[in-house]
Structure formats: C-alpha cells, structure tokens
Design a protein that fits this description.
The protein has about 375 residues and is an alpha/beta fold. The protein has helices at about 15-30, 45-55, 60-65, 80-95, 110-120, 135-145, 160-170, 305-325, 335-350, and strands spanning about 10-15, 35-40, 55-60, 75, 100, 125, 150-155, 180-190, 195, 200, 205-220, 220-230, 240-245, 250, 255-260, 265-275, 285-290, 295, 355. The relative contact order is 0.16.
Length: about 375
C-alpha cells in the first residue's frame, strides 16, 4: 500500500472532550483516518480512554511516539491552555509534527515563550478550523476571485476572540501588521436555554455580556467584532457576517455587486443539503454553489459530518498532506500566535476602556 493511500495516522495527548471529538471524526472516516494512541496522566484514566476510544493509551508522549506498531505522523495535544505550550515543546524535542489546539498559549508572554521554544522547528501548526467551515470557505473563495473588489471591512458576530480574529484576518487579507483595537462590554438580560450540557429547561433571563470591538489594521481595513456570552449555543442569538468591498458586499449568503456601472445585481450562495423532506440520500452538505458554479464541495461525503466537523476534518487532512510533503502548511504557528495576540488586545481594551495597539512580534516574518 502506498503512503498516499494509507490512512492518516495521528496521536492524541489528553482524553477529554476535544480528544473525543477527534476520535469521533476518525471513526466516521475509518478508511482515511487512524488514531494510533492517546496519552493520559494515569493508568486508571488510560484504561477508561482505551475502553471509550478503542485505542492504546500511554503515560508519556515519548511512549506514544515510539510505541511498537504504527508511529503517528503527527500528534494533537488536546489539553488545557496552561499545558498546551509545554506539551507542544516536548513533542518538538521528540522531532514530531504538532497540530496544537487554539490558542497555542494562554497569554502574550506564553505566546512569546512558545515561539522561542518551538517556532524555529517548523514543526508546529495550529488547529484553527474556522476559515475552512463551508460557508466561510465559500465566501473566501469569492473574495479571492475579486467578486466585490478590494475588501475593506468585515463585521462578524459569530464566534469568539481568536477564532473570530482568524476569520477577520483571512477575510481582509491581513498579515502581521500592527492593529489598533478599541472595545467595550455591555451587560443585558438574556435567556440562555441551551449549553454544551444540553437544554436547561429554564427561560429566565440572566445577565449576559456582549463585547464590541473595532480592529483597525490600517490602509482602510477594519474589523468589527461582536460576541455575546454563549453565542455559539444560544438559539436566541444568530450568527452574522457582513463583508464590504470596493465593488459590493456579502451579507451572510447574499452577494451584491456591480454587473456594469449602472447594474447592481444580487446572487446567493446555495447549499445542496440532502436529507430534507423525501430526499433519502442522508443528512449531509454536498456543495455550495454561486450563480450555477460550485465554489465549495464536501470532500468527505459519507461521513454525515456537521459543518464544524467538516472544517476540522479538512484541517486534519491538510495536516496529513503537509507532513507527507503533499501540501502546504495548514495553519502555521505564527498565524495562531497573531490571532491570539489580537484577541488578547480585545480583552484588554474591553477591560480598560483604553485603545490597545499591538506591535510586530518575533513570529512576524521579515
């Protein structure tokens, strides 16, 4: 069997919710993904992970990497922020490619230390999946075509901090330039009936914080960040995205642009989502089209994956292609560090009411 036809093999450090997420994806695509093992701190937790995940457990990263059988092609440390940097540094010392969780470190000093310890290795990528989510990927494809001209601003109310910053930077085409951040936080009552724990059965409004931030990247490029506590789960708060350019704008799935100097036209991004009504193909996104052209296609049909799952599994496959020398870096550590640098500036600006300006850090390319 050739290397390109073999399943992508990866190991995990940690046995919590995020590790379960990656194991579930591997089970959905068993011919294409394989988990070689998981590192847990105790033998007792290891036995539980073996029973739940169906893979061997180890106490150290060294044991995982050098176990008999199939060596992982890369390792995902699915551990708390406080441990991610040290776990990543240990894997780099072992010479193993790493797909680090977001954010790669908790604070600015942690980011700087992680870059000093691992940046030069060229082994570390970051598990930032949001630009690969189908809707965002389709919009980015249109922007790269110049559908609305030069992109000047993006207004995003969807996800939080570093994930949102990643989307803003990708949408605007912003690299490592200094950013000027202003922010405020507002508190208002809001029912919060759904969380990762499930439906609460309680519709009583409780105080919820909304953070609004403006990120000025210079050159007329601006991002507006809008996030409310638990917006990921709360069904009472929608997700919205407005991208504005010199020749039009994209509002969620609607694109307005000029066909000629006197003719503004409107088009929509159309999902082919099966499993509705009498469609018996199974519940799955097949593609997204624009004016009759497919601009996003699900490369993982048969897995019955959600759109978030599709983004994560796409990132894992891109990581596998990169370590095999078959594709570019999926999300370099420098990009993950820059995303979180700006997200920390949002937090600081909201806390103090002061304008916070980021500076070029060591991870910014020359």
């Amino acid at each position: 069997m050739s290397e390109t036809s073999r399943p992508i093999r990866f190991g995990l450090i940690g046995s919590g919710r995020r590790s379960e997420f990656f194991v579930r994806l591997a089970r959905a695509l068993p011919d294409r993904l394989s988990v070689t093992g998981v590192v847990t701190r105790t033998a007792e937790r290891g036995a539980e992970a073996e029973a739940a995940f169906g893979v061997p457990s180890y106490r150290t990263a060294d044991e995982l990497v050098n176990a008999q059988g199939e060596r992982p092609e890369f390792v995902i440390p699915s551990v708390p922020w406080s441990v991610t940097a040290s776990a990543t540094a240990e894997l780099v010392r072992l010479g193993v490619p790493v797909l680090a969780e977001t954010p790669p470190a908790a604070d600015i000093e942690g980011l700087r230390r992680m870059w000093r310890e691992t940046g030069a290795s060229g082994l570390v990528q970051v598990a930032e999946q949001y630009p690969l989510m189908p809707g965002h990927a389709a919009r980015l494809a249109l922007l790269r075509e110049g559908a609305i001209g030069d992109v000047t601003s993006v207004q995003l109310s969807s996800t939080h901090l570093y994930h949102a910053v990643s989307l803003v930077r990708h949408t605007l085409g912003v690299g490592f330039e200094p950013a000027e951040v202003t922010a405020r936080t507002f508190t208002a009552p809001l029912a919060d009936p759904l969380s990762p724990a499930g439906w609460s059965g309680d519709a009583t409004p409780k105080d919820a914080s909304t953070t609004l931030a403006m990120i000025d990247f210079g050159g007329g490029r601006m991002g507006l960040y809008d996030f409310t506590d638990n917006q990921w789960w709360n069904p009472l708060r929608a997700r919205r995205m407005v991208v504005r350019g010199s020749l039009g704008e994209i509002v969620d799935d609607t694109v307005v642009r000029l066909a000629d100097p006197r003719t503004p036209v409107e088009s929509r991004l159309i999902r082919r989502q099966t499993g509705t009504d009498l469609n018996l193909e199974g519940r799955e996104l097949h593609h997204i089209s624009y004016d009759g052209r497919v601009i996003y296609r699900n490369a993982y049909l048969g897995g019955a994956l959600s759109e978030d799952d599709l983004a994560v599994v796409d990132l894992v496959f891109r990581m596998g292609a990169w370590v095999r020398g078959e594709g570019p870096e999926p999300y370099p550590l420098a990009w993950g560090c820059q995303d979180h640098l700006i997200s920390l500036a949002i937090v600081e600006a909201a806390r103090t009411g002061e304008t916070v300006t980021t500076r070029r850090e060591a991870w910014a390319p020359e």
